[in-house]
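Field reference: sequence -> structure
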Amino acid sequence: MTVFTSKIEYLDGFQKKFTDSNRENGVLASYVEKQLTLLDQLVAEISPETFWAITPDILGIDAKLVLVTEMMRFDDFSDDEIIRIVENDYRFYLKELCGYNLGTKAKHSLVFNVR
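Structure field:
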């Protein structure tokens, strides 16, 4: 597991995977750039008053980025198919990663409060 303590380290981890792939141009690249722009906007808006409203969106973007990097290594999927799958599944990614089935109620945790 890679531990990061800064925005640069966090983004570099995704950028390396994206650069190492054959998908650094086109629709998927635009999708990732849009997610990163939104992430920057949300982080800039965090305050004690907005934390609870913004954090689920940040968790959602993180799940989208992780799913993109996982799926882009499969040449069977087009960029459009990857985006469609990511948009359908990102809300459940952390739940599944933690061993929950989709039908199982997750514990009361910020981690599972993804938008």
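Note: Residues 56 and 113 are 6 Å apart (CA to CA).
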